[in-house]
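Quick check before the chapter quiz. The format below is the same one you will see on the exam, so make sure you can read both the input and the output lines.
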Amino acid sequence: MKKIKSLLLLVLCLTLILPATLTSCSNDEKDIAETEIKIGVLKGATGIGAAKLKKDSDDKVTTGNYNISFYETANVKNLTADILNGTVNIAALPINTAAALFNESGKVQVIAANALGVLSIIGKDTVASVADLQNKTIHTTGQSATPEYILNYILTNNGLIPGTDVTVKYYADGTAAAAGMLAEGGVAMLPEPATTATLAKNPDLKIIFDVTSEWNKISETKLIQGCLVVNTEFAKNHGAAVDNFLKEYKNSITFMTSPETVAEAANLTVTYGLLPNAKIATESIIRSNIVCIIGKEMQNDVSAMLTVLFNANPDSIKGKLPEKDFYYV
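Here is the expected output.
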């Protein structure tokens, strides 16, 4: 009798639970299939990871429905405006820009870290250590942005005071910074693909320091420069579609960074105007440290990086560390 009652109770529980579960699955599948996700990424290193996803979306072989746009690097302000007003649902942005947007508006959440440092220091002469840059001029980009804070962090942790022991000159872009170095001497700290393009044009130049490697020598925090953010309201209404996007974006990252597929990946970056040619693209992909870190690991890594930026200059992220609602986990 007890066994019969137990069996009846189990049947009753399944009767109550299964319809709700099936409805939930059905709603998720509908959200994934029917929701168009408008994605904006900047041309250059931080946009590389989305190239395979763009091709698969155009070929109609993705589970999700994606509309991917590539913005010129000079148009980062347009991209931030579009993610805030909902014209774009997901955007690839510098990590400090993402935190600043959250602190100003609360309208974005970070969903993934996607670039672990895209900077190199190049020049003609061999330099044994960062400390040996004393009395030299560093030509670079990114004043009042992550490159400036990263450079200052590395210099000060190697005993150099920026502006006193080392002269730092800032330019509008990597091409101008490289030209400044070639004209005046010293070294240049450039992002990808400017590093690879400059080396290709000037055989007497070489990479003196990989900035990510130098960072790792002095910090336990991962050097996160780029991230993906989602419009908060969009994530609230379309969680299943966002979660599915992260899976397919991660697959895209794997394809774009795998040695077995790097040749095809390089061609895709040229097709979509992210990089100028396949040779530069192949080397640039290797040097760009492209990743897809999500969930709790992403929260821990991004939080640690933002703490470094906050300590360097609170204004870089609008004066405070983001609250926990900033992290989409």
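If your answer matched, good. The two ends are 47 Å apart (CA to CA).
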